[in-house]
Specification:
The protein is α+β, with helices and mostly antiparallel strands. It has helices spanning 96-110, 136-150, 177-182, 209-245, 250-257, and strands at residues 29-33, 41-47, 50-61, 74-81, 121-131, 160-167, 170-173, 185-192, 197-201, 204-205. The strands form two sheets. The chain has a five-stranded mixed beta sheet with strand order 1-2-3-5-4. The chain has one domain (29-239): GHMP Kinase, N-terminal domain (Ribosomal Protein S5, domain 2, 2-Layer Sandwich). Bound molecules: uridine-5'-diphosphate. The site of uridine-5'-diphosphate (UDP) has 12 residues, from α2 and α3. Uridine-5'-diphosphate binds next to α2 and α3.
């Protein structure tokens, strides 16, 4: 982002982007909840070429113990990018970037979890990026909040996330890899639809005030669509679980009432 130059035309004469998207178009998004048997909750997200897994454990006893809060649960997050997730093999293990992303995702999730219900405990969120193509922090946060809901952790609402940015002097939604590398700005946003709050906001690059406002509005609009995909994934999960346990799922319940 910012600084790298290229001969690639990021927006063509028809106003379309490298992958044929319009400026306000998001990459295809697919979410599946409850994909890991041994985690308390989990979710898998495919977003364009990004593939991200999230697993949740807890609330459980908080370790290390000096981090315990007698009044509330601590939401801890570890974001990790697999060595094979990017073109140039990534050196395994934590680095500055993964620490930063883990921190901002944990903070965003802390805003929606009813942490006061579970004093002294820890809710541990693990995000594994299996394939990366820009926007992995948004995909990770989106997956993590579905995994928390799948784990039955009480929350005010889900956090939905999407980025906007600027490429070739145009404000665009959901930057792809080349747009992230050679674009002018990137603004990842985490949004809570029910309370209308922004719980994650970062900016990389330069934007005018008007471009920033346009970008944030575009990202918030996209978060509302992401939210619907998250809810659908949880409804499918609930129906499948209910069918497994012989409990009437939402469809059958409605039929019974009618
Ligand atoms: N990336 C990479 N190697 C790294 C870190 C990042 O190739 O060690 C790529 C990866 O595709 C990532 C993109 O750069 O998705 C953008 O990274 P950024 O730090 O902007 O975070 P993201 O957009 O994934 O949230």
């Amino acid at each position: 982002m910012g600084g790298m130059t290229t001969d690639i035309k990021l927006i063509d004469e028809k106003g379309l982007r490298l992958d044929g998207r319009r400026p306000d178009e998001m990459r295809p998004l697919r979410i599946e909840a409850g994909v890991l048997k041994r985690a308390d909750g989990s979710a898998y997200v495919e977003w364009g070429l990004n593939k991200v897994m999230a697993a949740v454990y807890g609330p459980r006893e908080c370790h290390p113990r000096h981090l315990q809060n007698p009044e509330r649960a601590l939401v801890q997050c570890i974001y990790n990018m697999a060595s094979f997730s990017v073109d140039d093999r990534k050196r395994p293990g934590p680095d500055r970037r993964s620490h930063e992303i883990s921190k901002i995702i944990a903070e965003a999730l802390t805003h929606v979890v009813f942490t006061e219900y579970f004093p002294r405990t820890s809710i541990d969120v693990y995000i594994e990026v299996l394939q990366a193509n820009a926007g992995t922090r948004c995909a990770g946060l989106t997956a993590a909040s579905v995994a928390l809901a799948d784990a039955g952790v009480p929350m005010r609402d889900l956090v939905a996330s999407c980025a906007a940015g600027k490429v070739a002097d145009t404000v665009v939604l959901d930057l792809g890899k080349e747009e992230d590398n050679f674009g002018q700005a990137d603004i990842p946003v985490g949004f809570v639809p029910r309370t209308n709050e922004i719980v994650l906001l970062q900016m990389d690059g330069d934007l005018t005030n008007d471009e920033f406002t346009k970008g944030v509005n575009m990202a918030v609009g996209a978060c509302k669509k992401v939210y619907e995909v998250q809810r659908d994934a949880l409804k499918r999960r609930y129906s499948a679980r209910a069918a497994d346990e012989g409990v009437p799922g939402p469809a059958e319940e409605k039929r019974e009432v009618a």
